Amino acid sequence: MDKQSEIKTEYEKLPGHETHKISMGIHDCLTFGFGELDQFGYWQHPCAQCARHHEKAYPNDGPCWPHSEEQIEVMNPTSTKRAKNVSCSL
What is the pTM of this model? Predict the structure, then answer.
C-alpha cells in the first residue's frame, strides 16, 4: 500500500467520529481526519481527538497526526504553531 492510500482498521472509533478515517502520512506516522486526503497523507479536516484516542488504545503505534501541543513541544521546543509535517522521531 502506498502512503497516499487510506488505511482500513477495525478499532473502535469515538462516538460521533464514525466517518473519520486514518492514513499514513509522508512522515511515516498515522494521520486522522476526514474530507480530502492530500498527496502526502494528510486530511483536509484533521481530528486531534481521534489521534489522541488511537495513541491511548495503541501506544506502540507512536505519536499520531495531528500532533498534540505537548508532542510538538518535545519535537521542536521553539515551535509556536502546529506544524503539518513535524517528525515522529522523539
Answer: 0.68
Whether 31 is covered by a domain: the verdict is yes
What is the full DSSP assignment across 6-35?
A: EEP--SPPPTT-TT-EEEE-TTSSEEEEEE
Q: Is the four-CA dihedral 75, 79, 80, 82 of positive or negative sign?
A: negative
> C-alpha grid cell for residue 48?
486531534
Residue 61 belongs to domain spanning: 6-11+18-75
Q: Does residue 25 belong to any structural domain of this protein?
A: yes
Phi-psi region of 60 (alpha: psi -120 to 50; beta: other; left: phi over 0): alpha
Look at residue 83 and tell me if it is in a domain.
no
pLDDT tens track of the chain, all 90 residues? 444 444 545 556 788 888 899 999 998 899 999 999 999 999 999 999 999 999 998 899 999 999 887 776 666 655 454 444 444 443
